[in-house]
């Protein structure tokens, strides 16, 4: 879990906030049995040693062989471009927060005043919006409709096809000319035995060699409505539907000969790109006016409300980008160690590495610390936490391309499909990107989108 705890936004008592923050920040730093920091040091050392045995200068050097980023230098270059803009924004945010608080604020006060400013400045009551986001309507008139407008594909629910669980729904997906494309499985509601969060699964990958059609699913954790009541979504859940469906499209629209190279079987720093791009249609005016209608009256949502939500998401972006960059730099620091190097004092190592990268952990603490950075020590993200930013650079650049070329159209969709979605890993994804875009992605679009350019 993040360094910054959600409770900090609502705890009125500064002393309680300080205690919550310190309990989070010091997790796993007290020596004892299975001391997390010792394990981190040992694991980083073993990874460096393994990379050395394979002829690489570090684990990062080894891991990046299979990524779209050409190498560690390219990743560091990108981060070096973004760190000054992000920290400058974080400093500005801190100044606004101190003006609101009327006194200097510590790390544990920041989320409390940031949330207060957000409420006062944007006045968006997101809970009242749920009546405009009814699951079936968001799916049919939003998520599916955008895919039809872009790729010509159509969706028909097949109640005769049963999933692995009574809640699960199945749609057949067809090409514009009616030929079969595959099946889309929707598993939207939460249940006690279900994993948390949201994800896409591929039950069967597309393979033209075997003539096999893809079967993909989207899983969410929407609370099940009472019997006979419609399922109403939060803004975040609508966003998640569009996001996960971007992964589903990547699987469905694949035209790979071999299943192992098709669909989402792309490098880790590329796999989020199609799903991030698909989120753009959530705010596309003609899609919004079709899906965001009041469940009782059918009245359209006030377009200004969604615009305000989009605008409010920029507030605190300096903080969020900076805490993310902190975690990214820690990941790269641990995995850039040369074989045979030992880190004697991991906490000093952390602080030194962050400061050397131009980050100030006293201004904004990294999102994760070495003692609770499960992504890189317990998950598959070793030397890969940068991936979110890497693919978002492509995403922001692609959104600009769509906007410059008329947005939601079959022509644009076909180009995105044939050069990117359909290719899977049969061609270097960055090559696919250049063919689609006609050049490399410009990170400035990301900075502008996050409001970090001034
Ligand atoms: Zn995703």
Question: What this model shows, in words?
Answer:
With 454 residues, this protein is of the alpha+beta class. The protein has helices at 14-25, 36-53, 59-63, 72-101, 110-122, 135-151, 235-252, 273-278, 285-291, 303-312, 317-335, 346-356, 374-377, 387-404, 410-419, 429-437, 444-449, and strands spanning 154-157, 169-174, 180-189, 199-204, 215-222. A five-stranded mixed sheet has the order 1-2-3-5-4, with helices on one face. A hairpin with a 5-residue loop joins strand 2 and strand 3. It is globular and about 65 Å long. 42% of the residues are buried. The structure holds zinc ion. Zinc ion is lined by residues 243, 247, 272, 275.
SSE class: alpha+beta
Rg over CA atoms:
23 Å
The proportion of residues forming helix, as a percent range, comes to 40-55%
**End-to-end CA span:** 32 Å
Describe the global form.
globular
Percentage of residues in DSSP E strands: 5-15%
Can you give the mean pLDDT?
93
Helical stretch tally = 17
Instruction: Say how many strands there are.
Output: 5
Order of helices and strands: HHHHHHEEEEEHHHHHHHHHHH
Bound molecules: zinc ion
Spans of at least 5 consecutive residues whose pLDDT stays below 50 are none
Strand order, biggest sheet? Answer: 1-2-3-5-4
Largest β sheet strand count, sense and barrel closure: 5 strands, mixed
């Amino acid at each position: 879990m993040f360094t910054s705890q959600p409770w900090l936004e609502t705890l009125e008592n500064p002393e309680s906030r300080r205690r919550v923050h310190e309990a989070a920040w010091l997790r796993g730093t007290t020596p004892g049995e299975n001391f997390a920091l010792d394990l981190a040091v040992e694991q980083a050392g073993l990874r460096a040693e393994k990379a050395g045995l394979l002829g690489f200068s570090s684990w990062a050097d080894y891991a990046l062989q299979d990524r779209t980023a050409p190498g560690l230098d390219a990743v560091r270059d990108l981060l070096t471009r973004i760190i000054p803009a992000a920290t400058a924004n974080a400093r500005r945010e801190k100044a606004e927060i101190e003006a609101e608080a009327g006194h200097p604020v510590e790390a544990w006060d920041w989320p409390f005043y940031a949330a207060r400013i957000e409420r006062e400045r944007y006045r968006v009551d997101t809970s009242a919006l749920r009546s405009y986001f009814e699951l079936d309507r968001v799916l049919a008139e939003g998520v599916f409709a955008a895919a039809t407008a872009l790729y010509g594909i159509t969706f028909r629910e097949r109640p005769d096809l049963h999933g692995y669980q009574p809640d699960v729904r199945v749609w057949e997906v067809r090409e514009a000319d009616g030929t079969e494309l595959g099946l889309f499985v929707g598993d939207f509601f939460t249940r006690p035995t279900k994993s948390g969060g949201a994800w896409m699964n591929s039950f069967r990958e597309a393979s033209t060699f075997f003539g096999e059609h893809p079967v993909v699913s989207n899983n969410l954790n929407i609370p099940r409505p009472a019997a006979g009541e419609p399922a109403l979504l939060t803004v975040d859940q609508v966003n998640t539907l569009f996001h996960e469906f971007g992964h589903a499209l990547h699987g469905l629209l694949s035209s790979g000969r071999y299943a192992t190279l098709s669909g989402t079987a792309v490098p880790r720093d590329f796999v989020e790109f199609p799903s991030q791009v698909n989120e753009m249609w959530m705010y596309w005016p003609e899609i919004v006016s079709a899906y965001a209608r009041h469940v009782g009256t059918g009245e359209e949502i006030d377009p200004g409300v969604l615009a305000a939500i989009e605008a409010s998401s920029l507030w605190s972006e300096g903080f969020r980008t900076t805490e993310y960059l902190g975690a990214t730099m820690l990941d790269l620091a641990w995995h850039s160690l040369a074989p045979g190097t030992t880190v004697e004092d991991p906490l000093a190592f952390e602080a030194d590495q962050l400061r050397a990268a131009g980050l100030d952990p006293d201004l904004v603490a990294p999102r994760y610390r070495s003692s609770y950075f499960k992504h890189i020590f317990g998950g598959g993200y070793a030397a890969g936490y940068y991936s979110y930013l890497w693919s978002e650079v492509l995403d922001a650049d692609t959104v600009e391309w769509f906007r410059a070329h008329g947005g939601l159209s079959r022509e644009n969709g076909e180009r995105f499909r044939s050069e990117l979605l359909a290719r899977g890993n049969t061609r270097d994804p960055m090559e696919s990107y250049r063919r689609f875009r006609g050049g490399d992605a410009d990170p400035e679009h990301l900075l502008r989108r996050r409001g970090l350019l001034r």
